[in-house]
Amino acid sequence: MIASGSAGNQGSYRNDLSNSLLTIGLKRHSVACQNYYKILHDSFIQGIVVSLVKNIMFFIWSD
Q: Residue 1: is its pLDDT beyond 70?
């Protein structure tokens, strides 16, 4: 009984460990994704601003 009990505890400990490692991995992954999306978002906005400025400059120069 004692042996099976300790084996069971060891199993649950391993599960907890793998779960916590998985959570840490997911958190890091989500942070990386957020940074990536932020960069994409910023570059997208930058692209819009640049194209707007170019269009405005073009209209000014064409007049």
A: no
Sign, CA torsion 38/44/47/48 = negative
- Report how far residue 39's alpha carbon sits from residue 55's, in angstroms, rounded to the nearest whole number: 24
Nearest-angstrom CA–CA distance, 29 and 37: 12
- Greatest alpha-carbon pair distance for the chain in Å reads 92
- The CA distance from 49 to 41, in Å, is 12
Q: pTM here?
A: 0.42
Rounded Cα–Cα distance for residues 22 and 35 (Å): 20
pLDDT at residue number 52: 92
Residue in the block written with tokens 């400059």 = 57
The token pair that represents 57 in the structure block = 């400059």
Work out the angle at residue 24's Cα, subtended by the Cα atoms of residues 20 and 25, and round it to the nearest 5 degrees: 115
